[in-house]
Structure of Rhodanese-related sulfurtransferase:
Amino acid sequence: MKTEQVGDALLETWTVDEVAAAFNRNEIILIDVRTPQEFMFEHIEGALLMPMAFFNPDKLPGQSEKRIVFHCGSGVRSERVARRAIDAGLARIAHMEGGFGAWKGAKKPYIGTNMATGAPHLVS
């Protein structure tokens, strides 16, 4: 995990493996900031959707029990959202390096769309 001090806050950049391990242990809330269309086509099972276009840090869940980790397609949007969360007063926030593309590249499981039927299915 990489960390960056941003004023009084800490921005963490987690690797795919760190996110996957913490998510499997139910230690984090994984929030996808891609568009609803991107999410519907393929997403990490159990991730919540809060598109960057509608991001409101005041509506984020608390982090008393689980850390919030954002992700997007490549890591660019999730870092922007994480910085917006810090600007809104969150003292510690994280995002996933490389985004969903890195997740798929690491062969982590996700929900995809069967192109023949249009139905969602587990890709592992």
